[in-house]
Amino acid sequence: MSASTTSSPLPRHSVVIVGGGQAGLSVSHGLQALNIDHQVLEKHQALHAWRTQRWDNFCLVTPNWQCALPGHPYAGDEPHGFMKKDQINQYLAGFKAAVNAPLREGVTVELVQPVAGGFLVRTNEGECLAEQVVVASGGYHAPIVPRLAERLPAHIQQIHSADYRNADQLPPGKVLVVGSGQSGAQIAEDLHLAGRQVVLAVGDAPRCARFYRGRDVVDWLADMGYYDMPVSQHPLREGVRDNTNHYVTGRDGGRDIDLRRFALEGMELYGVLEALDGDTLRFAPKLGEALDQADRIYNGINAAIDKHIAAKGLEAPAGGVYEALWAPAEERETLSLADAGITSVIWCIGFAPDFRWLNAPVFTGRGHPVHERGVTSVPGLYFIGLPWLHTWGSGRFSGVARDAQFVAERIAHHRAHQAETVSAASAGRAETSLA
């Protein structure tokens, strides 16, 4: 029997936060400061994605100084370095301990839906009521694997980037990496440095320099105000949320990722993977175009930095324009799996959102939530931790604190408004009874 059908009243919370990652814990930090009762529900363990969905050599692609979770800024001795996987998890463990959220782990939220006075929250451990709900489960839920994967020969090992750990987990032979966003480019590099033969299907991901004119590009962009620009002022507006992240790496102290250099060193580059006919992979003949566009964005970012330096009259080492080290002699559109000796495939084409458990009219046809800085059209329902929720840093350690504080304050405002409404209604009933 459902808890909602028993005679006992359901447990009630002012706020339920769904998700115990850095976003959910950040909102808890804000609510505790405002003395607002809440519960954080996490289906695994708090911050588990950082422990379970990163490869062994994973490191941050943004400098450590940008790790600025609420009340827990980076305090190490390498602010311009890039924490590795174990260091990131140590930093996050410290954040979890500092927040000390009212957290329940191992609790799967199966349904959230609006009801009178708030929301019904159904979990694998029962039901409760919440006056307000914060969805902090992120937007990367279902690994994307194309249907053509079903037709690959059975002997070829297939994994998603979320399951990649190191080169040794793959069988001998060539590895096909599909996708060249941040994960795809870094995994291809990881395999390449491990001495594996890699075939990379290149998409339309942009790239940027790691260092330019004497500083990390992130430092320059911070000075230029890029990380404070709200999505409402971005030239693409909400469309920027669909953009692929620039590929670059913090590995070995940080460097560019240049796919053209990889090609000179033996990596095989193709265009976007489009189809599979029997044993033959088919690619879009647009490799050269993709590489050229990535370089245009790379040079465009550097040119913006040049303009900033000139406008401010700053002293900095001379800049320059990247010139291609390599270009494909021709567009290769087909590749035989057997002839190439491909024995494994890593799908690095991202994740799809999965909010089927949230029964509220706040989604686009593609399943993405509609919101303004995390506030939805359903009173009392919020999102946090999504890419470009408000700024570039919204889905990262650098910007989630600001978003969490905003959401916490909106929650407090909503509670105050509800209290005023109830008080006014009570006063109205009292006047009516005296009439």
UniProtKB/TrEMBL annotation:
InterPro entries for this protein: Auxin_biosynth/cation_transpt, CHP04046_FMN-dependent, FAD/NAD-bd_sf
A GO MF term: flavin adenine dinucleotide binding
Keyword set, alphabetical order: Oxidoreductase
NCBIfam families: MSMEG_0569_nitr (TIGR04046)
Name by which UniProt lists this protein: Putative flavoprotein involved in K+ transport
Organism of this sequence: Sphaerotilus hippei
